[in-house]
Design a protein that fits this description.
By secondary structure, the protein is mainly α. It has one domain.
Length: about 160
């Protein structure tokens, strides 16, 4: 949730601009590290996929300064789709647990955000019509909702 809030705040602040889209890569790496730290208490190998995906996409964005906004948009789209499909599968895997629907909703919301990103950009063209702040807002919304969904699930499982 904290990384999502940071991504959301940075989207309307100075670190994320059309000249500096690589800040999103840093947010993805931080997200992967935080998920990796919590990995021992997670039940599914799908969380491991999420950790590696976040770290790999974040590193690709950060380590390729020649990437323009189009490349960042494409990599964020791939991240959103794979991350959220794995969240939906994870939700069905934990279905007997209380409030598994929140995790499923986070996967569905992420897929919808990815499709919105696809629809709002010149995804396959040489230039991206997507403003960088929109990428940060989409990533922030996803990470906040995923954090809330997983946190609430863990709290309900611990309580029961």
């Amino acid at each position: 949730m904290i990384v999502g809030i940071l991504a959301l705040l940075a989207s309307v602040g100075s670190p994320v601009s059309d000249d500096n889209p690589h800040f999103l890569g840093l947010m993805l790496i931080i997200n992967g590290i935080v998920q990796g730290i919590s990995l021992p208490i997670i039940i599914s190998w799908l969380q491991l996929v999420s950790v590696f995906l976040s770290l790999i996409v974040g590193a690709l964005i950060l380590l390729n300064p020649q990437w323009d906004l189009r490349d960042v948009t494409r990599s964020l789209f791939v991240f959103l789709m794979v991350e959220c499909i794995s969240k939906a599968i994870f939700a069905f895997a934990i279905r007997p647990l209380p409030n598994w629907g929140f995790v499923l909703a986070s996967g569905i919301i992420g897929i919808l955000l990815a499709l919105f990103l696809l629809a709002s950009s010149d995804f396959l063209l040489a230039s991206s019509g997507t403003p960088i702040w929109l990428l940060g807002v989409l990533l922030g919304i996803l990470l906040i909702y995923e954090g809330v969904a997983i946190g609430y699930l863990a709290w309900r499982v611990r309580k029961s």
